[in-house]
TrEMBL record:
InterPro entries: GH, Glyco_hydro_17, Glyco_hydro_17_plant. It holds the Pfam family Glyco_hydro_17. GO terms for biological process: carbohydrate metabolic process. This is glucan endo-1,3-beta-D-glucosidase. The lineage of its organism: Eukaryota, Viridiplantae, Streptophyta, Embryophyta, Tracheophyta. It catalyses: Hydrolysis of (1->3)-beta-D-glucosidic linkages in (1->3)-beta-D-glucans. PANTHER family: GLUCAN ENDO-1,3-BETA-GLUCOSIDASE BG1-RELATED-RELATED. Coiled coil: none annotated.
Length: 330
């Protein structure tokens, strides 16, 4: 939504439907988007913006937020998830001051959903980024950073109790761009013809699986074996920075859509619920590469020939945009 040339909310819903995209992520309770979603049958992940976390650490404020932005639209809007905060970290200067509010806001929103009897239909979680992982190599040694354990452990403990997945934003692009000497482009783009690393008996042919399995290992190392992971964002920019090319982005999105139906070496045979970032290029974002994550142009033309067909569906993401969802027949 951070663009001055983007289609209206009803047009976006029609675009999702015409491409058979079954799920969407939005990053705040945008009334125009929610109104347009009524009766669309598109399942929604809605975000509590980071700026609202402190307020929602008060239970009555959380109750009001859920009433206003979820219950007043339910069931004509098919809420699937509520993401309470996005990429909050106690060691990131930009979010450290609000990290203390994530758990109380998460619990209060969960309690508001439970008091409405909807805890089985609408799952409440938070979206992390991979900077919370301290060790990721090999994947079986994955562990959270020591200085975020006091933050993350109670959150994932609550998710176990609530039988709710953790949301994770996983970008092989940033890992590759940050270390092209040690990470090969084929490994980041799913194009390596054979395993690049071996972790015991498990061979890793792509970085996405290695990152996701490192997160699973970190959850297990923290004692939470039953928490599943939903990949709440993944994408590749088509311009604006190193390795951000149209061909690389097309390759990444196409291969990601094919890949997530099959699981990871650590969790094989289980489709990975995955949301593509993002629906549109957004010309008002900074820095430059952030303008180029769209899988559609603002004029609603597809940027890449992606298959959101009946067997594989993909939902799209926005930061005040929307996320496209990817899933196979689960």
């Amino acid at each position: 939504m951070l663009g001055n040339n983007l289609p209206s909310a009803p047009e976006v819903i029609q675009l999702f439907r015409s491409h058979n995209i079954k799920r969407m992520r939005i990053y705040d309770p945008n009334p125009a988007a929610l109104q347009a979603l009524r009766g669309s049958n598109i399942e929604l992940m809605i975000g509590v913006p980071n700026s609202d976390l402190q307020s929602l650490s008060n239970p009555s404020n959380a109750q009001s937020w859920v009433q206003r932005n979820v219950l007043s639209y339910w069931p004509s809007v098919r809420f699937r998830y509520i993401a309470v905060g996005n990429e909050v970290s106690p060691v990131n200067p930009g979010t450290a001051s609000i990290a203390q509010y994530v758990l109380p806001a998460l619990v209060n929103v969960f309690n508001a959903i439970r008091s409405a009897g909807l805890q089985d239909q609408i799952k409440v979680s938070t979206a992390i980024d991979m900077t919370l992982i301290g060790n990721s190599y090999p994947p079986s040694a994955g562990a959270f950073r020591g200085d975020v354990r006091k933050y993350i452990d109670p959150i994932i403990g609550h998710l176990t109790y609530a039988k709710t997945p953790l949301f994770a934003n996983i970008y092989t692009y940033f890992s590759y761009a940050g270390n092209p000497r040690d990470i090969s482009l084929p490994y980041a783009l799913f194009t390596s013809p054979s395993p690049v690393i071996w972790d015991g008996s498990r061979g890793y042919q792509n970085l996405f699986d290695a990152m996701l399995d490192a997160l699973y290992s970190a959850l297990e190392r923290a004692g939470q074996y039953s928490v599943d992971v939903v990949v709440s964002e993944s994408g590749w920019p088509s311009d604006g920075a190193f390795a951000a090319t149209f061909d690389n982005a097309r390759t990444y999105y196409s291969n990601l859509i094919k890949h997530v139906k099959g699981g990871t070496p650590k969790r094989p045979g289980r489709a990975i619920e995955t949301y593509l970032f993002a629906m549109f290029d957004e010309n008002q974002k900074q820095p430059e590469l952030e303008k180029h994550f769209g899988v559609f142009f603002p004029n609603k033309q597809a940027k890449y020939p992606l298959n959101f067909g009946t067997k594989r569906i993909s939902d799209i993401s926005s930061e005040n945009n929307t996320t496209v969802f990817l899933k196979s027949d689960m």
